[in-house]
User: Which sequence fits this backbone?
């Protein structure tokens, strides 16, 4: 999620690991071909995976990972987006299946694949 533009890059994965994270990083790089990207991350184990080192080294001119201090979700802009998503999709609603949840998520977030003020304002107003 780019807090300056409001643009978000979405990837679905059955579980988070170094392979799915690498796939997402490739998608993020592709989404902004002319910019160097600084990605703010929490300290989940697979963000630090040794398997990522060759990929990160290969893309060091395009990509920099910045890790937040432990236990500091308030500093991570994506946490505000997840809060917004839960409020709009799951709060006080029963979704029968994961497939239904993904469909609702996609309907909501597909409009934020491009720069927008909605997500930008969520991050700016709450930080």
Assistant:
């Amino acid at each position: 999620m780019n807090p300056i533009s409001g643009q978000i890059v979405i990837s679905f994965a059955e579980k988070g690991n170094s392979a799915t994270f690498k796939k997402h990083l490739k998608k993020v790089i592709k989404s902004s071909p002319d910019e160097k990207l600084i990605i703010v991350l929490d300290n989940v184990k697979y963000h630090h995976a040794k398997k990522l080192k060759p990929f990160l080294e290969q893309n060091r001119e395009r990509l920099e990972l910045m890790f937040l201090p432990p236990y500091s979700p308030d500093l991570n802009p994506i946490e505000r987006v997840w809060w917004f998503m839960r409020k709009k999709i799951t709060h006080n609603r029963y979704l029968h299946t994961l497939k239904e949840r993904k469909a609702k998520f996609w309907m909501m977030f597909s409009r934020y694949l491009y720069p927008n003020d909605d997500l930008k304002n969520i991050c700016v107003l709450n930080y």
